[in-house]
Sequence to fold (944 residues):
Amino acid sequence: MAKEFVARGADLELKQIRKEFPGFTAIDNLDLHVPAGEFFALLGPSGCGKTTTLRLVAGLESPTKGKIFIGGKDITATKPHERPVNTVFQSYALFPHMTVLENVAFGLRQRKVADPLAKAKDALNLVQLSHLADRKPQQLSGGQQQRVALARALVNRPSLLLLDEPLGALDLKLRREMQTELKAIQMEVGLTFLHVTHDQEEAMDMADTVAVMNLGRIEQMGAPETLYDRPKTVFVSKFLGQSNLLVGDVTSTSANSISIDVAGNKISVPKNRAEKHKGKIAIGFRPEKATFSSKKPTATSAKNVIGPGEVLDIRFTGVSNQYLIEVPQLGNITVFAQNMTHFAPIEVGAKVWISWDVENSFGLSDLPAKNVKA
Amino acid sequence: MRFSLGKLTLPLYAVLAFIYLLIPIVYTFVFSFNNSLKTNLIWRGFTFDKWTNVCQREGVCEAFGNSVFIGIISTIFATGLGTMIAIALVRYRFKFRSSVNLLLFLPMATPEVVLGAGLASQFFNLGVQKGIWTIIIAHIMFCLSFVVVTVKARVASLDPALEEAGRDLYANPTQVFWKITFPLLLPGIASAALLSFALSFDDFIITNFNAGSDMTFPRYVYTAAARGVPAEANVIGCAVFALAILIVLATQINGEVKRRKLAKVH
Amino acid sequence: MAFAAFGSANAPAAGKPTRSGKVVIALLAPGLAYLGAFFLTPLFALIMVSLEVPDPNGGYAEYVPAFEIGNYFYVISEYLPHILRSFGYALAATVLALVISYPLAYFIGVKARPWPLLQKLMLTLVIAPFFISFLLRTLAWKQIFSNESWIVSSLHDIGLLAPTQYVVGTPFMVIFGLTYNFIPFMTLPLYTSLERLDLRYLEAGSDLYASPSKVFRKVTLPLSMPGIISGTLLTFIPIAGDYINASGDFLGSSSTSMIGNVIESNYLQINDYPSASALSVLLMGVILVLVSVYVKKSGTEDLL
Fold:
């Protein structure tokens, strides 16, 4: 029965989109391509323009400038009810005066599809809620309402399914469960999903491609692993996980790498992992990629070393410890270490050197608003 | 809060207050069963006659019929016009919003004599003959603002995402209105309509300025007051009262039943 | 409640600019045009009539357009006692209604909170007087306090009233009737604001060493201010213009006539339209001034 919903989604293309509201610009010159059948996440903090982007695609807002294509067809001027697009709303927006079944059948009835109730029942089966078909939405739990909203959108077999923070109202445990379920349903039906979220874990867990949005623009786009391994901007390096950033002028360049000087420390990054090769640049590394030791390790062309620094704080988080280390003139550096043993290897106040592999460094295209050395 | 007089002070006070509020109602009820003659001032024994033969008293039922007719027509128009304004006020941004609010507020802040005298002057200037329709025009005017206030609260509590979901699910604007907005606003519209009917039915002052020779129920009572109001008027008043209270209680109990049902499921 | 409702809940839904212009006009135009034709224009007509003078060539009750400001001076000098009486009665009845309503609204809105059904039933009782004809309930009081009633004869017997004194026809009776008739307009908005009162504020007050009466004055009262304001406006305005209670056929006598009575008799009985209109304009003007001063003073300008 799930086969009923299997359809090839269409691709979505936004060209040069600009959206102004009275007093501010929500989206500025946005270009975006979502390939057919992909699970695509728009990730960003609140107010970054991601929900506006979604509403533009749904037709609930119209762009100030630019064009929107679905499956190659220009739908910029098309009314919401004429677009092959369905939305799972953040608040679910289930119609309180209709039963669950009537909610799911609503779109089919509007399009005068034959046998809407049977198809709606199939959709409820897909989300395992057929036993609640006669309830009113208010009588369902949050997770159940979320699944009804999903069924109500999926049953129309849209070319493109839009999800506006659909898991935002659920508690953490339920949210992780629904992530798995949603991903499984997407694989099953093969539709194009455009998912808007501010939860980086959710985006990385579910999406084939993640676009990180900030201030109305897309900062970086790519597979979750790529984004995490090689962030290109300060914002992405900080929004997706944590990063330590060091800023300095490029002092030497070799065949494969460039190095900067930060308060007398030479920090290198492979050329192919750096956005800029000249002038003042920021080089970053992830806290879990670094280690520390109480003896100074020898810096090599393959290893960056900074220190000595003083351990300011140790935070126990279960699987790992988070160490905050103050390195004079460099600022505070965070290092994660797995709790391989049952005791912390060092204590607060200890003097340590921090090192990490050059190939784990990444060079960013911009500089932090306030340099790390405060 | 703990007052030194003890916990019973407030409940006792409330009981006294309710007795005070209900005294004239009980009085009117009791005297609707009075075996009275022309006037209804002294108790002359119990009878059902006034209830069973209410229309035998000249003019009472005619006045009542006029009031119902005026009430229904005014309510239909006031509710329709008011609902439209309420939707516009909550759902759309526009320039003259505060002026519109002021224009809606003013009729409620204007004493009825002023509304009545003003409209009467208008009709007089235009040479309009006063009658049932001038009364209806007046009633629509003063009910309108009350409808807006009542429906507005309901519109404001309606999640705009519901209408967006309707548009998203292939319903055109007209279908969205009739299948989603209207059914969800219906409780608010219904209470606005009831309020509007009650205001119209009970209005005397504005009506008196804009009526010709046509009687309404309050006008009948007013005219009769000089020489004594017959028990049949009490019958009508009490019947309307009972009906209104029944409607209110029924909706309250219905709401309570729904609430309990929901509570059970969770 | 109605007054406060105009101030709040004005947050428009997320932007729907340009294209909605036509829809807004279509939604607003009929109703606003109606108010323009049958509310605003009549007010203007009233002002015009208030300046008219008797037709020198016409007969009784015929007037011609003019610009006779003197009409206003005439009605003020002629009816000053009525004007003062109206506002005096309205003030007294409003204060009485507030004093009677507040504990009742507090009981329903705060004390009865654990029993929602009881709350609703009590609210029904509060508005019950609305459902019986205004005139009938006023007449009921008249007969309860009539000269032949046992209440009045008992008052005579115990000497609270001199044998020649009666209740109906006195200012006391008129104020009593006005208070009764408009009490629900006071109780409902008070209830609405007290019902929303977060009890934790009261607990916080007590926790911070305030005595119960101090908690009431410093916490409860200020938080219920919106209800007090809209309640007093909703009672004061209709009372100031009322003429049923003060009428000789109901609770009053010729010595209790209010502006409403004067307007009614001038307009409908002796057909002195300019005087009636001038009084109406005055009444409306005074009320608008009072309302705006009151609203400004109480610091809730968003009420308008």
